[in-house]
Amino acid sequence: MIPEEKVREVAERLSIVEVVSDYVQLRRAGANFTGLCPFHAEKT
């Protein structure tokens, strides 16, 4: 398992939105972002 300290360090250095948006088209939904599942042909 990954140590909690490493998880915290990575989360502080990277924006999850920037990382995920390289692979999934994200749309703003209020204060959050939404995107379709990249693992199957989702349409919702």
Characterize the structure shown.
- The protein has 44 residues and is of the alpha+beta class.
- The protein has a domain at 4-29.
- Helix content is 36%, strand content 18%.
- The chain has helices spanning 4-13, 16-21; strands at residues 26-29, 32-35.
- A hairpin with a 2-residue loop joins strand 1 (26-29) and strand 2.
- The longest helix has 10 residues, at 4-13.
- The protein is extended.
Termini Cα gap: 33 Å
Helix % is: 25-40%
Radius of gyration: 13 Å
Shape: extended
Tell me the fraction of residues in β-strands, as a range: 15-25%
> What structural class do the secondary elements suggest?
alpha+beta
Q: How are helices and strands ordered from N to C?
A: HHEE
Tell me the strand order in the biggest sheet: 1-2
**Which blocks of ≥5 consecutive residues have pLDDT under 50?**
none
Strand count: 2
- Report the major sheet: 2 strands, antiparallel
Count of DSSP H/I helices? 2
What is the average per-residue confidence, as pLDDT, rounded to a whole number?
Answer: 92
Features:
2 helices, two-stranded antiparallel sheet, 18% strand, alpha+beta
Topology:
Blueprint: H1 4-13, H2 16-21, E1 26-29, E2 32-35
Antiparallel strand pairs: 1-2
How would you briefly describe this protein structure?
With about 45 residues, this protein is of the alpha+beta class. It is built from 2 helices and 2 strands; from the N terminus they run ααββ.
